[in-house]
Amino acid sequence: MSAVRPIPGAEHDGETSWQRELREQFPIVTAHPELAYLDSAATSQKPRAVLEAVQAYLTTSNANAGRGTYPWANRTTDLVEGTRERVKEFLRDPEPDRSAVHFTGGTTEGLRTVARDWLVPYLTDGDEILVPYADHRANLDPWLEARRLLAERGVDVRVRALPVQAVSGDYDHRRLGEVVGPRTRFVAATHVHHVYGGDMNVHRIRAAVGPDVPICLDAAQSVGHLPLGLDDPALDVDFVVFSGHKAMALPGTGAVWARNARGPAFRPAGWQGTPNTVGIVSLRAALDWLDAAGPDRIARWTAGLTTRLTDRLRHLDPYEVLGCPAGLAADSALPAAQRRHGIVTFRHRGIPSDDLGFVLYSHGFMVRADSLCQAGADEKDGAVRVSLHVYNTVEEIDRLLAVLASLT
Ligand SMILES: Cc1ncc(COP(=O)(O)O)c(C=O)c1O
Questions:
Q1: Quick one: which of 49, 113, 118 has its CA closest to 288?
Q2: Strand partners, 239
Q3: Kind and range of the H or E element at 245?
Q4: Kindly report the CA angle at 218 between 215 and 224, in degrees rounded to 5?
């Protein structure tokens, strides 16, 4: 494999050698230099530190949590409880004594738990909620289910769509005033869009709904990819829901963080049973790894790759980069590509996306090629998504661009 070339503007920071060292920590990546894993929005690869933490736990103290009183059981309980605090610390929670962390299997389960166990009891007849109709379906289905559950009890709740800018896929914050009203009681939003990679600017939703309306943030594509600080007033949200497996932890791992400042405290209903202790161990190791690597540096690295891919692909004639037209950044000082976080989705005007996915794999690129679980999308809306993490390189992007260029 050829040497990793520096990203323009980043070489002075020593970013390239920093990245190479991190990449070396992913055994599955280094074992297959002929392949390029470009599907991290689906799930991330795992660094050695996470694999070793899991191995160490299973070979030294595997037991159930919150039950036994012998040392392995106590250690497991400490690991689980300590990881709740670690999640709060990772998210830079300004009030950890008030907030709560609940472990889940991923974002889908987390959003459903917020909907069923917190939102349904919270809403009353005539209330309105605002939800995204063009984001991941995991962030739409639970809210529609909540409306159905309430309707079965005779409680009529109106679900309104967050307005979207047709071309970019970003929320249309200028039209938020049209859907926010005195009965708006809850908003579900996405932090980074899983198709367009754009930051959805949740601070503008907060500005539109005022200080009292709870906001639930789907952070599946931001945790582990960029600095996420709840001590930042721009991130004044009430729930952060994410998948640990997209952030270097094991599959079947995720969490709901609840601020517990607006509305009732978040308490998942019913007996919770045995937690995913191994997943929780992996989550703790993953958060340690990510903090040591530096979420700001990770974001800078993947932004450089995203910009490189987007800028070149936009000028290759048969390709259409979704959500990235000229003039996208009308209300931002930054060029469109720089506002995208590690996700580039495109179509070839002459080759169906699923065929393009097969062709790319024949050249060693693992990408996603289908309707991407986008709410409202079906097979005919298929597209190819390239999604990146810190282990991806400039060389992989250039190799991909060369193959894409050969298909024009
Ligand atoms: C934005 C977004 N939300 C929710 C999900 C669902 O995550 P999980 O499959 O881990 O439940 C995904 C997965 O791709 C996503 O990208």
A1: 49
A2: 216, 258
A3: none
A4: 125
- Pinpoint the alpha helices (H) of 198-264: 202-209
Residues with pLDDT less than 50, the chain = 1-4, 9, 327-338
**What DSSP assignment string belongs to 209-221?**
H-TTS-EEEE-TT
Residue 311's contacts (CB-CB under 8 Å, 6 or more residues apart) are 337
The residue whose CA has the least distance to atom 12 of ligand 1 is: 220
What is the pLDDT at residue 63?
Answer: 96
Tell me, yes or no, if the pTM score tops 0.90. yes
Q: Where in the chain is the domain with CATH 3.40.640.10?
A: 52-292
| Distance from the alpha carbon of residue 266 to the mean position of ligand 1, in angstroms | 21
HSE-up (13 A, CA, CB side) for residue 188:
30
Mutate to test the pocket of ligand 1, among 44, 103, 107, 368 (most ligand atoms within 8 A of CB): 107
In this structure, are residues 281 and 262 in contact, taking their beta carbons and an 8 Å threshold?
A: no
Structure tokens at 304: 């450089």
Query: Which helix (DSSP H) or strand (DSSP E) does residue 185 occupy?
Result: strand 184-190
Q: Which residues pair with 217 in a beta bridge?
A: 189, 240
| pLDDT for res 358 | 96
Distance CA(137)–CA(229), nearest Å, equals 25
pLDDT at residue 333, as a whole number = 47
Q: Which CATH class is domain 13-46+294-406?
A: alpha beta
Element (H, E) at 50: helix 48-60
* Beta strand pairing call for 184-190 and 215-218: parallel
Architecture of domain 52-292 in this structure: 3-Layer(aba) Sandwich (3.40)
Distance 402 CA to ligand 1 centre (A): 30
